[in-house]
Amino acid sequence: MLVALAVVGPLGYLWHASLLPDSYDMAAMGYPDWGGGPGGHTGPGGAVVAVADLVAPTGRPDVRARFEVRQDDEGYTVNGRSPGPLLSAVAGDLVEVVLVNVDVAAGATLHWHGVDVPNAADGVAGVTQDAVGPGEEFVYRFVADREGTYWYHSHQVSHVQVQGGLFGPFVVRSPTADADVLDQLAVVHRYDDGPSLNGLPGTTAVDTEVGREVRVRIINTDNGLLTTWVNGAPFEVVAIDGVDVHEPEPLTGTAVRVPAGGRVDLGFVIPDGGVRVDLGGTTALTFGGDPTTGTTRAPPDELDPLTYGEPVSLGLDPAAADRRFEYRIGKRPGFLDGRPGMWWTINGHHFPDVPMFMVFEGDVVVMQIENHSDDTHPMHLHGHHAVVLSRDGTAATGSPWWIDSLEVGVGETYEIAFVADNPGLWMDHCHNLQHAVDGLVAHLMYAGVSSSFRVGGEHSNEPE
């Protein structure tokens, strides 16, 4: 039972407290928003499917991995290290990962950030599975059907476990990838003792020959924006959030911003004198030497993905959208889990009284995200890639800018579109994970899908 309490605060505001029970169904939270389209309770043909039944096809996996997660005084590890080991696949592979919780007291999960997995493999405690307790195991299965740069991380008490090290990289390569291209990971993370690149502080030198083509896969695992830039050679942004840019143009003297949770792939050729890739100003990669004195500043010019590259068909028609949603972010005083404070709002409401964005499978969806708050928000929609249509009313004119992690600045408005082609119950939240804890969480739910799990309860599910 939900109990509502309303009181007038010292400044005259009406504060509303939703006192949640110890266990509750996330699908029952908030209010249904059908985006202007027809509503309903079941999918085509009247079928109803449970979240737990939305799984990958059976069969022998092409890629198998066993990830053992541990906790100690210094944080969290996967197979004894942080970042965890690289999970690598070829597009089309059936992937199977066994999560073994050795001793993480609060439980753990694995979310495949940016990978459009079946809903039961999404790894969100209390939403798509129960947290995996100490001594327990859980098997994830999904087809890695889109090449690109991704990562995995816990989605149980995620604001603590991700910052503490429970994450790792995931790369899906093309079956026709050029073996002569040097493929370099750059996993950027700030631990309690400072910033790191692939788990190491400072600059990492990569020994390679002049004329070698390089692809640097940058993964921002932090809560805040990462700025990267290249010295010594022209470069291209060849992919954003796992999707290749169409006909990217060479850049020089240009910084590239990577949202929290986001990824960019940079491509260049090593010249005489080498190349330096700076990653936030405190960590860097050098290839074949360092063309700088070792300290550089971010260039004043920044890449605008809205106009970068050349246009190509989107594969969907936003003008014929079946659903149009508003996701307006604000902040005002109120109660969250019975705690008074200044909390984030969605469409003027505090969590859990926020919209449940409802769709039917096959719908074309347009969503307008407005930031009326005093902070930036890296917004992350699970289970889907969306294309950016406009920013502050200016239409996109470059390569289709497909994202799963979008930095929405103070006062900015973005319009995005996607096809509802992956049934389930999906989080749509800020990937500054402390913001998510403080209420910046909504969900996308398909008609004809029923919830299988509960937040709280005997498994102490805490998705954020």
Q: Could you explain the architecture of this structure?
A:
- It is built from 2 helices and 39 strands.
- It has 464 residues and is an all-beta fold.
- The strands form 9 sheets. Strands 26, 27, 29, 31, 32, 33 and 35 form a 7-stranded mixed β-sheet that branches. A 6-stranded mixed β-sheet has the order 4-28-37-36-30-34.
- The two termini are 22 Å apart.
Mean pLDDT level: 93
- The backbone outline, from C-alpha atoms, is globular
Could you give the count of β-strands? Answer: 39
> How much strand?
over 45%
Count of alpha and pi helical runs: 2
Radius of gyration: 22 Å
What separation lies between the terminal Cα atoms?
A: 22 Å
Low-confidence stretches: 1-19
Main sheet, how many strands, which sense, barrel? 7 strands, mixed
Structural class: mainly beta
Helix content: under 10%
Architecture blueprint of SSEs:
Blueprint: E1 3-8, E2 14-19, E3 23-24, E4 31-33, E5 49-50, E6 63-72, E7 75-78, E8 87-90, E9 93-101, E10 111-113, E11 137-144, E12 148-153, H1 158-161, E13 167-173, E14 182-191, E15 194-197, E16 203-206, E17 213-220, E18 226-231, E19 236-240, E20 243-244, E21 254-258, E22 263-269, E23 275-279, E24 283-287, E25 301-302, E26 323-336, E27 339-346, E28 355-359, E29 364-371, E30 377-381, E31 386-391, E32 394-395, E33 402-403, E34 405-408, E35 413-419, E36 425-430, H2 433-437, E37 441-446, E38 449-450, E39 455-456
Parallel strand pairs: 4-28, 5-38, 6-9, 8-13, 14-17, 16-24, 21-25, 26-29, 28-37
Antiparallel strand pairs: 1-2, 3-39, 6-7, 9-11, 10-12, 12-13, 14-15, 17-22, 18-21, 18-23, 19-20, 19-22, 23-24, 26-27, 29-35, 30-34, 30-36, 31-32, 31-33, 31-35, 36-37
